[in-house]
Amino acid sequence: MEAVVNAAEVLAAAPQPGAADDACPEEGSSCQAASIPAVQALLDPMEDLSRKLEDILKTYGTADNAVHQQSVDREKMEEEAGRVVPVPKETGEDTGRFKHMKVGVLQQKVVRVQRERDQLRSEHQRGVLARSQLEGLCRELQKHNKTLKTTLNEIQTQIAQYSGRNNKLSQENKNLADKLESLMHQYEQREEVRVGGGGGVRAQEGEGVFA
Known about the structure:
Blueprint: H1 2-13, H2 18-23, H3 30-60, H4 63-82, H5 93-210
């Protein structure tokens, strides 16, 4: 069935949530916290659509085989109906009885053909119904696929924004660390100067006392 192929192609073409995870490799990061609920919300309908597809395939998956078997049986019946029945040499009562038997056989074949026709018609209706359901499922899948792509694009945009903010914060932290290190170095230098200057003053005071 062409519709089955289309449904399978749409399922295969659906974006995978791993694409968003690859862009946000750090476990427990804020971008993962933002992306996981959104992706999960999209995966739930996807599972429901997959179950619908499985149900349709289970219900109508054997329709093609049944139709093929009916076609083979019909060909066999047509072949049997087309065979030449030998005409007996007898005449009179035997000939009439033979004609009656031949008519009975043909009537049985007609009944069989009609029954097979009804079965084929039923299978055709089932096939039409299955195709209609699959086409509806394809439309749902395409709609969901479009929504999924849009949401994943939004998630990737958010991840890029989070990444930019993280890089900016990292640079600011580095600048603050450099400033703190510079201040500590200046403080140590001032302490060295203060301690060294205080010792010189005390030495001069001691020399004045002894003089």
